[in-house]
Design brief:
Number of helices: 10
Helix content: 55-70%
Shape: globular
Oligomer: single chain
Distance between the termini: 56 Å
Structural class: mainly alpha
Largest sheet: 2 strands, parallel
């Protein structure tokens, strides 16, 4: 009889107190104190460029050392998390709601059209670019843990996953935007 192997994946959606989020926060604080590494991540225009940064590999290594499974197929997601984390000021809240916050004039900070592009995106490289731009527009005011959980659980629309991150993001955005 073979024993089933249980994998421990980081950034579980409904467990914000999971150790992986603490590891990410410690890594992010280290990044805040290391301006050179942070600048290198902020300049990274692609996930490949993020992978070239040693600080990304430090996050990957720490997660694995702590017993988390980061399969090769998920490494681009971790790279996206690392690259985007360098661009935020950790602000409590839900990413979708932060993007839908109303600015003077009763329009959401992120336009509905831009938000629809984000929600329709299946390509991780394109998602990284769209979120980089969106984070710039909202002044980097985003939740580190919310960002990580959203990206880690982002699935292709073809998978028809009932727990896809983009659905929750849409609910949060439209509730905040009052559209």
């Amino acid at each position: 009889m073979s024993e089933k192997v249980k994998y421990l994946y980081p950034f579980p959606k409904w467990q914000p107190d999971d150790r992986s989020f603490l590891i990410l926060r410690e890594w992010w604080q280290e990044l805040e104190n290391n301006k050179g590494e942070r600048a290198a991540l902020r300049r990274a225009d692609s996930l490949t460029e993020v992978v070239y940064c040693s600080i990304y590999h430090r996050l990957l290594r720490t997660l694995r050392k702590e017993g988390y499974t980061v399969p090769e197929a998920h490494m681009p997601k971790l790279a996206a998390i690392a690259g985007l984390a360098a661009r935020i000021d950790d602000t409590p809240g839900k990413l979708g709601a932060q993007m839908g916050t109303l600015k003077p004039g009763d329009k959401p900070v992120i336009s509905e059209l831009r938000m629809r592009r984000v929600l329709a995106c299946d390509d991780l490289e394109e998602l990284y670019t769209l979120l980089r731009r969106a984070l710039s527009i909202i002044g980097g005011n985003a939740s580190l843990t919310g960002l990580a959980a959203t990206i880690w659980h982002w699935k292709s629309l073809a998978e028809k996953n009932p727990h896809d991150s983009r659905k929750q993001m849409a609910y949060d955005y439209y509730a905040a935007a009052s559209i």
